[in-house]
Amino acid sequence: MNQQSEKGMGREFLKDSIRLKMDFSKTDQTRGFPPPPIEKPFDPNRERIDLTPVDQLQTAVNVDLTKAISERISHRNFKDDPITLNELSYLLWATQGVRGERKGGSVLRTVPSAGCRHAFETYLCIFNVENIKSGIYRYLPLEHQLILEKEEKELDRKIGAATLNQFFSGRCAVTFVWTAIPYRMEWRYGEASYKVIALDAGHVCQNLYLACAAIGAGTCAIAAYNQELMDSLIHVDGTDEFVIYLAPVGKIK
Predict the structure, then answer these.
(1) Angstrom distance (rounded) from CA 213 to CA 161
(2) Domain coordinates of the chain in residue numbers?
(3) Which end of the chain is more exposed for a tag (fewer CB within 10 A), N or C?
(4) Per residue in 195-240, pLDDT tens?
């Protein structure tokens, strides 16, 4: 079989797979089940940190979009300088911020998502953010707050090991860690969810790249990591919720 024939067979296999996966007649949405929560529940008595209000976030930005796009590049070496709470607030809003609510149990955010399902949670391994102690936090997009998930000894070393010795993941100001809660997408798309979750992860991280450029910071997406170690570090079960993408952020040299 020649190479061209193999490519043609591969394309047909892919198209057939997509067709098979796009049968929505048996999803929980079509069965009438209510949609899952758009935000992971949290203990209201836990420590929370108010972020900079959205209407004040423009003060964090010092570059226009055209310049940010033209200068986008991955960075793995960062200054020891901290980032401010205003800057962190801007990055969180740019990647998962809520712009408004819709009928039917969904919200509009600053990034696109298939069916407006938004399957991700944002965790932060904070190392050097002004006036915030080191630890693992989670972004609450509906409240625009951070909640402390846990303090972790040797967090920089542990995340470096979990990212297969990419130690810049712990030598930065903060590392964004996105988890996927697949049922948020499966409720509507069934077995096709794996595809659109992967697409959505790209949307989120691209916004982070551009938002970093706007505040004089840099980032580098990480998709190579030890799944079990990362899930354990963030304290998710690896099935109903699992780590899907990481991105360390810091001021660039």
Answers:
(1) 27
(2) 1-33, 36-251
(3) N
(4) 999 999 999 999 999 999 989 999 999 999 999 999 999 999 999 9
Mean pLDDT of 1-13: 53
d(CA 15, CA 209): 32
Nearest to 205 by CA among 219, 184, 226: 219
- 50 CB contacts (<8 Å, ≥6 apart)? 144, 145
Residue 77 tokens, joined: 């070496």
Tell me the two tokens of residue 46: 């836990």
User: Which residue carries 């542990």 as its tokens?
Assistant: 158
**Topology, domain 36-251:** NADH Oxidase (3.40.109)
76: amino acid identity, one letter: R
- Locate tokens 């970093």: which residue? 212
Contacts of 232 (CB under 8 A, 6+ apart): none
* Burial class (CB within 10 angstroms; exposed 0-12, middle 13-18, buried 19+) of 49: middle
Looking at residue 7, its pLDDT comes to 52
Count of residues for the chain?
A: 253
Summarised one tens digit per residue, pLDDT across range 66-101 is 888 888 899 999 999 999 999 999 999 999 999 887
In three-state secondary structure terms, 237 is: coil
For residue 34, what is the enclosing H or E element? none
CA distances from 154 to 29, 107, 159 (A): 43, 36, 9
Residue 187 phi, psi dihedral angles, 5° rounding: -55, -35
Contact 202, 210 (CB under 8 A): no
109, with CB counted inside 10 A (0-12, 13-18, 19+), is: buried
